[in-house]
Amino acid sequence: MNQTPAVNPSLTEQEQVRHDKRAQLIADGGEAYPITVPRTHSAAAVHAGWGHLTAGEETTDVVSVSGRVVFIRNTGKLCFATIQDGFTLDESGTRLQVMLSLAEVGEESLEAWKAQIDLGDFVSVTGRVISSKRGELSVLATDWVLASKALRPLPTLHKELGEETRVRQRYADLVARPEARDMVRLRAAVTRSIRETLYADGYLELETPVLQLIHGGAAARPFNTHLNAFDIDMTLRIALELYLKRAMVGGADRVYEIGRIFRNEGIDSSHSAEFTMLEAYQAWGDQFSIAELIKKLIQNAADAALGTRVIQTEAGEINLDGDWEWKPVYPTLAAKLGEDITPETPAERLREIATAHEVPFDPAWPAQKLIMELFGELVEPDLIQPTFVCDYPPIAQPLARPHRSDPNLIEAWDLIIGGVERGTGFSELIDPVIQRERLVAQSLKAAAGDVEAMQLDEDFLAALEFGAPPMGGLGLGMDRLIMLLTGAGIRETILFPLLKPQS
Predict the structure, then answer these.
(1) What is the DSSP letter of 89?
(2) Cα angle at 69 between 27 and 7, to 5 degrees?
(3) Which positions bind Mg(2+) 2 (predicted)?
(4) How confident is the model at residue 242 (pLDDT cuts 50, 70, 90)?
(5) Cα–Cα nearest to 388, from 422, 413, 423
(6) How many Å apart are CA 37 and CA 16, to the nearest integer?
(7) Do the beta carbons of residue 263 and residue 238 sit within 8 Å?
(8) Does residue 44 register a pLDDT over 90?
(9) Rounded to an integer, what distance in angstroms lies between the CA atom of residue 242 and that of residue 34?
């Protein structure tokens, strides 16, 4: 039975054709989206089982395969198509040729294929496994069925998709580019490796609240929201730290969380408003034991994802093996500037240095903030090999322990690889009196208008007053780690990054 489908002016010509085919198929009593279709083998399994066939060799082995049509060539009595499997941790979307001949499927089935099937459709094909005359492993169909009708055309697979299209239509990107699928698989391998390493070391994986009454654990501007059930304002978390430490107070010996973090800040090639962090805390540890942990995590992740610890980057070759250097902030900055820089260096002199080196700064910044800005601009970009930048001024980390040998410093490090911060760690502050002083100072900054300052968290302080063991803690940016291993920007490493809406 034929019918004239309604024309939708909002559709492109190709989309209208596909809508018409769907409508006609249903009108003829067929199914455009059946619940199940025959499938005995994946494309990868066919390659594994029959990849040895020589050109022109045929078998009597019958299989049913299914996948998305990514190539199609219809001729008179013989039609060719390439179907693409879904991708998994071990497979990147294997392709397999299917052939439909008049002699095998009959005239009605062959004409239906030509009339109904478009690029992007999912199909199931049943037939014998053969190797074509050109040596292409194929399934010579005896039957086929449409599994899902695609109402939008695929991107042109042999043309490079623009970055904006790739990130806005990641589903199309994943179909079109093996590199996009490989990124998803690599990230999964890295995440799996991180969990396996921590599990082997006795760490408990926890889940902590995303919605929080008080934002803390980092210097960052939060996203604000409102909980209607309690009629209270809340924020999305900016760090994982404070609740994980509560668990340590309760007796957990080693804990970690891999979780989404939300910071209402700038978005660029290395920053996203939402990103993924690993935070881990180790009782009876300090900044040195936790540094060994992050080193092991990154090395194992490189092994799992790349099979090597030597990475080629735009900044040069990076070797993740061997010893990772430690560089204290003040002496390293002094060596860069060629003059003595200490915690006693006045802010006035640091402003002069910043001006001379064209480093932007706020005249209201104290000396410690100026030190961090100078170091970040003048030294960090040149730290290509893995380097623990340590002995920071206290302003850097309000949650870190005072240095064991210098009261002007804290026991904290940033891990710089390829000129970019990848992670941070410190000997955790567990003295509730000093912690209160620092959080009060932060809250005063917040009251004065500093949108990145932490708030006073009385519940967290109450937990610390129960007593916490000495501990080391680390934070590792999962997206930054993937960027290091792949050389990609953050929008490529995040599967569905936050984007500015199109007008």
Answers:
(1) S
(2) 40
(3) 421
(4) very high
(5) 413
(6) 26
(7) yes
(8) yes
(9) 49
Q: Is the pLDDT of residue 1 over 70?
A: no
CA-nearest of 482, 497, 503, 122 to 302 is 482
CA distances, 429 to each of 217, 394, 412 (Å): 12, 11, 10
Mean pLDDT to the nearest integer, 219-245: 95
pTM as predicted: 0.91
Backbone angles phi, psi at 8, to 5 degrees: -105, 115
Confidence check: pLDDT of 63 > 90: yes
What does the DSSP assignment read for 277-315?
EEEEEEET--HHHHHHHHHHHHHHHHHHHHS-SEEEETT
Per-residue confidence (pLDDT) for residue 4, from 0 to 100: 55
CATH code reported for the domain at 13-154: 2.40.50.140
Query: What is the gyration radius of the CA atoms in the chain, in angstroms?
Result: 29
* 270 within 8 A of 480, measured Cβ to Cβ: yes
Taking the chain, what is the end-to-end CA distance rounded to the nearest angstrom? 43
Q: What is the spatial distance between Cα 428 and Cα 460, in angstroms, rounded to a whole number?
A: 14
Annotated binding site: 414, 421
Residue 481 burial by Cβ neighbours in a 10 Å radius (0-12, 13-18, 19+): buried
For 176-324+385-493, CATH number? 3.30.930.10
* Cα–Cα distance, 435 to 249 (Å, whole number): 15
Q: What are the tokens at 278?
A: 């690993």
Please report, in range form, the residues annotated as the binding site for Mg(2+).
414, 421
Name the residue ranges covered by the structural domains of the chain: 13-154, 176-324+385-493
